[in-house]
């Protein structure tokens, strides 16, 4: 008597492949996490790294830097001793955060209200007279966070969270002497 070879049929193989595909897609979706929390993490780490780089540049170049934070993002400023005012750093443009992201800044333990930026209308070409120019000039830029050439920073705590959520998010902090660090804040519900 001859024995028949036993093997899987094509339909059985296709069913197993479909089931494996479904299991893999469910596993990827459950492990992936939300893109919002990932974006918060990336933004917090990016900001901590930026302040660290600015601190190094301030010490090496003997130059004072500042960070102006508003409700829509932040910008890097440097102090111009000749003009005796804060100016935008040209190579670092204004960084806007996504609309769903909320920024809360505390300086030395005091919460600050972050408002939307105002449109500046400086006469950069210098075509008008001094009197006209000063009358039209918007308020001077003043950073909340100072990054000094001595290596010191303003003691701060900047919380990045989703606007709809009250707890959770990421916190970028510095005591003024150490470089800032980004850490996750647990949800307090």
TrEMBL record:
Q: Where is the composition biased (Basic and acidic residues)?
A: 119-135
Query: Disordered: where is this region?
Result: 116-135
Ranges annotated as spanning the membrane: 7-31
Where would I find the General secretion pathway GspH domain in this sequence? 43-167
* Subcellular location as annotated: Cell inner membrane
Q: Which UniProt keywords apply?
A: Cell inner membrane, Cell membrane, Membrane, Methylation, Transmembrane, Transmembrane helix
Q: Which domain of life is it from?
A: Bacteria
Would I find Transmembrane among this entry's keywords? yes
Q: Which InterPro entries does the UniProt record give?
A: N_methyl_site, Pilin-like, T2SS_GspH, T2SS_protein-GspH, TypeII_GspH
Q: Which GO terms describe its biological process?
A: protein secretion by the type II secretion system
- The principal location of this protein is membrane
Which is a Gene Ontology cellular component entry for this protein? Answer: type II protein secretion system complex
Q: Please give, as recorded in its UniProt entry, the membrane topology of this protein.
A: Single-pass membrane protein
The record's comment on protein family reads: Belongs to the GSP H family.
* Listed name of the protein: Type II secretion system protein H
Supply the source organism for this entry: Stutzerimonas stutzeri
Q: Which gene encodes it?
A: gspH
């Amino acid at each position: 008597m001859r024995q028949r070879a036993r093997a899987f049929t094509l339909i059985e193989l296709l069913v197993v492949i479909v089931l494996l595909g479904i299991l893999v897609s469910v596993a990827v979706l459950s492990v992936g996490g939300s893109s919002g929390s990932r974006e918060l993490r990336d933004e917090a780490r990016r900001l901590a790294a930026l302040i660290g780089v600015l601190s190094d540049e301030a010490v090496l170049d003997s130059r004072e830097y500042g960070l102006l934070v508003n409700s829509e993002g932040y910008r890097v400023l440097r102090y111009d001793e000749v003009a005796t005012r804060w100016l935008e750093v040209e190579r670092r443009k204004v960084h806007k955060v996504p609309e769903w992201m909320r920024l809360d800044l505390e300086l030395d333990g005091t919460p600050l209200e972050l408002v939307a930026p105002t449109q500046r209308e400086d006469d950069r070409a210098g075509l008008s007279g001094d009197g006209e120019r000063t009358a039209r000039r918007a308020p001077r830029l003043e950073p909340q966070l100072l990054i000094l050439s001595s290596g010191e920073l303003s003691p701060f705590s900047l919380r990045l969270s989703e606007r709809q959520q009250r707890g959770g998010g990421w916190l970028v902090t510095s005591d003024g002497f150490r470089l800032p660090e980004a850490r996750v804040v647990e949800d307090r519900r």
